[in-house]
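Note to self: the last two entries modelled the partners one at a time, which told us nothing about the interface. This time every component goes in together.
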Amino acid sequence: MRDHLLLYVNGQRHEVRGADAFLTLADFVRERLRLTGTKIVCAEGDCGACTVLVGRPRGRRLHYLPVDSCICFVYQMDGCHIVTVEGLTPGRRENDPLHPVQEAMVRHHGSQCGFCTPGIVMAMAGAFETDDGRHRPEPLDADALRRALSGNLCRCTGYVQIIEAGESIDPASVPPLAQLYPEQAMLADLAGAAAQPAAISAVRGGQTMELFAPRTLEEAVVFKASHPDAAVVCGATDLGVQHNKGLRVPSVVLDLSHVEGLSDVVAADGVLRMGAAATWTAIGDITEDLVPEFHRIITLFGSPQIRNAGTIGGNIVNGSPIADSLPFLFVTHAEVEIAGGAGRRRVALTRLYRGYKQLDLAPDELVAEVRVPLPRRGEILRLYKVSKRRDMDISTFTAAVLARLGDGGVIEWMRVAMGGVAPVVLRLARTEQWLEGRPFTEETMREAGHLAAQEISPITDVRGEARYRRRLAENILVKFYHDAQPAPAGAVR
Amino acid sequence: MPHSGKPVPHDSARGHATGTAPYIADLPALAGELWVDYVPSPLPNGLLRRVDTDEALRVSGVVAILTAADIPGRNRFGSIICDEPFLPSDRVSYTGQPVAIIAAESREAARRARALVRLDIAAEPPVLTIEEACAAGLFIGPRRRIARGDAAAAIASAPHRLEGEFRSGGQEQFYLESQAAIAIPGEQGQMVVHSSTQNPTEIQAVVAEALGLGMHEVVCICRRMGGGFGGKETQAAIPAVMAALVARHTGRPARVVWSKDDDMKTTGKRHEFRTRYRVGFDDDGRVLGLSIEFHSNGGAFADLSTAIMERAMLHADNAYYLPHVEITGQVCRTHLPPNTAFRGFGGPQGVAAIETILEDIAATLGRDALAVRRVNLYGVSERNTTPYGQTVEGNLLPRIFDELERTSDYATRRRAVQQFNATSRTHLRGLAMTAVKFGISFTTKFLNQGNALVSVLMDGTVQVSTGATEMGQGVNTKIRQLVADEFGLPLEAVVVLPTSTERNINTSPTAASAGADLNGTAAVRACAEIRGRMAECAARHFEAAGGPSADPAQVRFADGAVFDVRNPDQRLDFSELAGICRRERVDLGARGFYATPLAGFDRESGQGAPFLYYTTGAAVAEVLVDRFTGDLTVERVDLLMDIGRMINPGVDRGQVIGGFIQGMGWVTTEQLVYGARGELLSHSPTTYKIPSIGDVPRIFRVAVLDNDLNKRNIFSSKAVGEPPLLLAVCVFEAVKNALTYAAAGRPVPLFIPATNEAILMALDEAAKSRNAPKESGVAVESPVGVP
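The predicted structure of the combined assembly is written out below.
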């Protein structure tokens, strides 16, 4: 057992003890290390001003990804190398050359007020990193830049000059971080520490804080049984927000992000198996060819920074009725495997939810894995996410439709799940039953839409009115009809 | 080589990109520094009976909790109408209003204490909407009127008439750096305040007021802001006063940095506007008479609301000639945070109203809206006086319309849109061109002044400071270019200092797009004065060294050197001359002053010439709407502006694009949602959606009419900060246009913002009106649209 964390920031080694382990990473670098280039704006992972690159050991390399440092905690950084905006040009003095990304931002008027700029620079620099630690072979085009920067808000520029800056950069000029920060010594040092679980106790403002970061699921289950109130943390994209807003500052934290095997994602025999700690980035990667429709929704889900931290386990256990993954998991008949003191059990995901954020999960149980039977050839899958803004927005309404059509265009079966229309994500059983055996026509789907609207109980909230959600529920089935038609040339999708 | 006219990088760009340019929150902690937080009112209206701080004061690390009773000076401020307390003493006026100030050793201690301060408030019912305020007769300032001719008669006798109501919602400034200040107590009760403010003189004044000091005992410094957009023109005052009060009471430095949530909940925003109108027009859509009645939601205190209403009224014509017109405006007092400046300052609300009226006229007549806008456009030599009597001089709008119609391929795309809408079952497209004619100058005449201090140092380098504050708009970069050119120096030889009331006094806020106009001109004037003295000295020197007889008028400053044009080989380095000047006791410092030559506007009569010139332009948007979800995509925007001869084309292009996208947010995704207590529910970027990078139109063509016609302004440039924001109204009108295709060509009511939700609900309305009988040539009562 270790009583401290080991991490590197801009190549500098830090052993973190006591209350500092419970700081957000943004506060740690700004206040403890005086690296104030990292900015805090929203403190909820929605603006990206606090973006830093986190290098995690993967094989014989450090694999760097952008994350929002304001909503992750120092304890999650155990065993990592963090690069802040100050670290892009190690040892630079005032008139030394800038990093190519910084230089391009200067030359192309990519900054105005400058407050979002360090976050933009880091997200863009991160987009030049590759899996093999070499130079990115291709320049970033506008689409790649839009994807890479979808989690960074800028209020001044209107983004065009930022995109132009990014497009102008010769990838061969961008030093890979592996080149700026030689990895082998760092990796060896970090690996030595990683073998042991970390356990830290501290007192902050009169409150005792305790962290346990196990290496095996068994250790985690034992700890959870003895600490039923412990906050279970993987990516902390939700807890980080609640912490910053003073809504929840847990005194005991069980950090699952270092549990071996819990982040694995594998597909075999028509089943996609995702460990609870698998990030959306990892799931996005594997589903790109496997389930392109799910992949498409994942790319609209949060931002790169959020997807690099947020996990499927967190999305499921958080249990929000507008969780973007759930409608898909509902129509595919996904199951979760739960580990607890009494052993393991499997439960259909649809049966996991009892009410608004109420789960069928005992205090000593942890979600270990999610298994998704993949849609088969001949089945039609469409997923919908309606939000005020396309990127980086929490859904107002979500839906999934999975269908098999029989001969003569008759609906063999159709599964419909909707989110944002009730305290939990719903499967619309009556609508599904009514649809069975009917001809797949616009008229059928219009009638089904009316039925669907009766099966839901939406509310009015900050994201939309009840009548809007009801209308979406009606319309989405008609939209599905059109989406399922073979696309004529030049059609809008 | 001159620097003005070149796209040199922002003078803080390297600092921005490396993270080394500090903002208030980044400055190193001073010894003994305290953290400042505040207790917001949980209620919008009520008697404040008691503030119980006992328990909160017991929290370890809490040093003081201050209330209105602890204000040693005057507890009242307001730059137009002095009606706002720094802290309420007897009643709370809006949810989120700071009631008590907490000073603590740490942020955490302050946060813990905040939850423990108990406010005893006798709740009273709030007034939250324009309708409620009108019913209760609660207003701020008088009802204002601008009129010409006989609008009522012209409407009554017109061949066609429309009347209806239009609304535009508020908008959060969403500067990324929230309100922040540091106060440092000095000797003899003096105070230095670092503030993220667009208006250092105002901060100096309010801190002096609150502390009972003279302005001479307070210094305010602003190095830079992480965005302002109007939100720091007046509303940096309360946070600065918070820090100053703590510093005064504890004798320790004090820092306040509001969280984004607190900032959004507590500060004012762009005003929500309600427009009621009656318009009469002919068969071509030419407006014959227009009566327009504005009401804005001013919030709890006056702030700048009456000036903002004035600018809305002065922009109700936008680019269009209105022969008979009556425009009235009234600010409503409600229990919301006092609404305030936001880029455009009422202009967008006025322009959105008239552009929507024209769009509806076109749909009613079944004509292309561009044709309707053209017949109404201000003329070059006739039909070119505004309702308030100012002539639109040097009008380039007809040329802008011609060029943009051609370069945007408007006619071809109109046909494509019609064809698409006739066949698509799933989507609708819309296309619209709108204009902007933005009046440049503060409409309050006295504010149109600027001063600058220029110092040439004996090594030949230059320091300049002005009253302009740098919020990202690049004003310091432009001033640096202008000053370097005045002395023929490289940019590196000129530093623009932080804005400080020690150097520049009695300044106007950096606002009204006029920062570079006012302060740039003042700086150039100061340079000219110094240059004149240096030229005299140089001329004497050249003569003494065997050159031509001394004639300062022949002396030139270029490429770091000084010479007489009659003998250009005899040169002095600028630095050499600076040294000579010092030894010969020539004054190398000067203060420049500029007062814009203006006739001015008489708000009582509603007549006058408030503006030095207009910045104009037009834009075309094409949008795609999903018929099933209301989902909106802005597919293409073509934009053309006259912003004169640009001092910095890179900076100005950023202003144009950034302003447009900010305006696009206002008309599409940015929605302020309030609860029953007037509490803002969309108080962070999770729920308040400003445009993200994916919202930028995939095709976005930005062009300017390169010209040096505007001799009235420095470098023949034009102000650029606000005008492009108003062009985003074309996106809204394109949505309106798309909806008409679902309503058999009729106008479909829609309000700003056109969220996906509003669009989907409007599609329902469109479907209903599609089946209604078509009327023509008679009044059409617009139904109330989507809230």
